[in-house]
Amino acid sequence: MPNQPNKDHLLWKSFKDGDDKAFYDLYDQYSDALYGFGMQFSKDTGFVKDCIHDLFLDLHKYREQLKPTDSIQFYLFRALRRIIHKQKLKIGLLNLNRNHEQTSHLHAPASDEALIHSEMQQKNLDLLANAVSQLTKVQQRALFLKFEQDLTYPEIATLLNISVESARTNMYRALKALRKTLSKDRIYLNLFLQFFPKR
Amino acid sequence: MKKKVEDILAEEKATEQKIKDEAKASPKVLDTANQLYSYLRTPKNKWSVLEKKQLNFRIQHSIETITRRKTRRIWFTAASFFILALSGGVWYNQVDQHSEITEFANNIKENKNDTITRLVLSEARAIEIPEVESEIQYDTKGEEIAIGANQTIQQKLEPVKPSYNTLTVPYGKRSKITLSEGTTVWLNSGSKMVYPAVFAENKREVYLDGEAIFNVSKDPTKPFIVKSHQFDIEVIGTIFNLNAYSEDKISSAVLKEGSIKLSRKTKAYLPAENKMVSPGEKITFDANEEKFHVTNVDPSDYLSWHYGYYVFKSETLGNILKRISRYYNIEIDLKHQQLARVTFSGRLDLKSSPAEVLNTIKKTTPFNFKEEEQRITIY
Fold first, then answer.
1. What percentage of chain B carries pLDDT values higher than 70?
2. Share of chain A residues as helix, strand and coil, in percent rounded to the nearest 5
3. CATH architecture of A106-195
């Protein structure tokens, strides 16, 4: 989702001014990204939804006190990150971090209408997904924020609570590891490419 | 130095175009970079449109429960008046709740003494259905209608205009109908439903006068709206009972699954009053008080009638007799009005005759009755 400073600024302002439609527009526009973001921190969909729910209640409650922003997406990610962190502490971190059970979920879901690919492609995707799951949590999250959400290194660093330098290093290492998997396993995703329209 | 895949992709603004224009890399490296880039950009954790809409409903519901915002309502009213003053009639038209389907429903001539279930198709063609418990099923195009097991009827539909069909179920009869998009509706005695043979592109709208259970097929792109004389109900996919007889002052809805939104329009120039209902809640609108009430109930008690029995928990005899009277199409006379307020709890099997049903109630709630043809007197 590309940043749209002007539009964002206006939407945010009308939401702060008490426009209920703007509030639900915010939800429509950003809840998909928030869900993807939340899933980077927990594999429990119910938990992630609860946190998004709490986030929007907070937004509604404190709307008048909120600061102006030109990047709603970044703002909301930061807020959701805080809520997830708070809730995890409450519930007990250990219960939620059992993500190794669900590594197969990391590749694009089969329900995706674009995924009409042969078994061959599925195997390649699984290999890539598996390679991603071997990366550290920070690396996985950095990849998500950069490639799925188009955030900058400074933004990624803030969200992951690391330095910009560390964000860059993590990204580089993650990409290198994935590249090696690709060349080692000779994966060819050409067909796969055709099915994903350019964004 | 030749650039590697990770050099290209790690750049601050790596885009498809930039990868393509990369001069310092071999074609093979570019190819790999492109593949990896596409994979990384594909959303991995997606939720369904339905999940998204359900969470939206939940948020709305929570906000409403938390903020009983009187000040805001005043502000809203003030703002609405202001806009009304500015734009006059145009505004009035925009928010006027009288939709085409409500208009259509109100223009149907009624015969309260009718004793036969009637299905009115396009071009006002009426089909009589003699069964006490009838079953009607539309095909997906809305053109072919199966009635019971043996009868099939065709209707011609105009391509542009919505063709409204009407199902009228008299006292003493029930009907189960499956609409063209898969929603199943059980209509209780003395009920009328208006619906288009095929639904519009963006919404599904029906009108109900009476009582019905809706099992709404899930389609997040087309909300299902049930209009009634006191309020509208909007759902995505859910099971609920709606009791909204236009001759009654009290309407109620009970939700079994999913979530529903009630909205009531009091004045054309005011925004609608919205209420969210969760599973296990019963929402009642009382015209005497002009207010909604929410209570917690066991939803199965309110959905049981389509299995052939009623379950009552401390229900007044007055309300129970009204239901029995509608169900069997008999007149019930209460000689002593104080009996109407006596309560009864228990299960009433509706397959037996009205006299048998009354005998069950009599066991715990003492009264006498005598039965004449189509008329029972309680004293």
1. 89
2. 75, 0, 25
3. Orthogonal Bundle (1.10)
